[in-house]
Amino acid sequence: MSTHRANGSLYTKINNGVAAVEFGHPASNSFVSELLGRLANEFAKLSDNDSVSLIVLKSEGDRAFCAGASFDELVAISNLEEGKAFFSGFAHVINAMRKCKKPIVGRVQGKAVGGGVGLAAACDYVYATVDAAIKLSEISIGIGPFVIAPAVERKMGKAALAELSLSPTEWKNAYWAKEKGLFAKVFDSISKMDKELEFHVQRLASYNPNALAEMKRVLWEGTDHWDELLAQRAESSGKLALSPETKAALEKFKK
Prior knowledge:
alpha/beta, 15% strand
């Protein structure tokens, strides 16, 4: 069952040391700014929760994992301040995931576009199905995946980032994403994925939480500058969103 709330939904369930964080939005699980803020705050809160050893990030339904940031909000940007605030949404979430002391396991049941790919890249381990194709479409509308690029490059490498970014209308299948390092495992069905995921996270959560936290820290070494980097990228993206070329491209998508 998917949410019908315009501002989306976010639910967390904690069981046996595992916090399952589920987000949803009627527009293919895309993110309005309010929902991104709530998700960033949730990661910060779970990071300090001693009853949690591990986090599972997932989205509602059995179709798209995440369509990225809200297209309606992007179209509505009218000044640089609004543009920077809009693109800062995923910056805050990625940095919250980076700083979270608990490992984050992603569950990607379907397609991921733009910021959705960034979310998957910011997870520490990702389960996916064969339907989890990915695409970075930003260049095609006159902007670029600049905010999420550091997370994608860290996980997949610069060559894969270039291939995704510079072929913005082309879907890459789940096995390509696995080969490049975005996904750890790919399954034929959601049921098979969930069965293996449940077994894996329960086993991980039984391990020494201090060891898990230290492993998380090691995995993210060299990213301490991301607060400043992603803020700069958000401002650059905001400027591009106001350009005549981007406004003209966005007009084509308006109904």
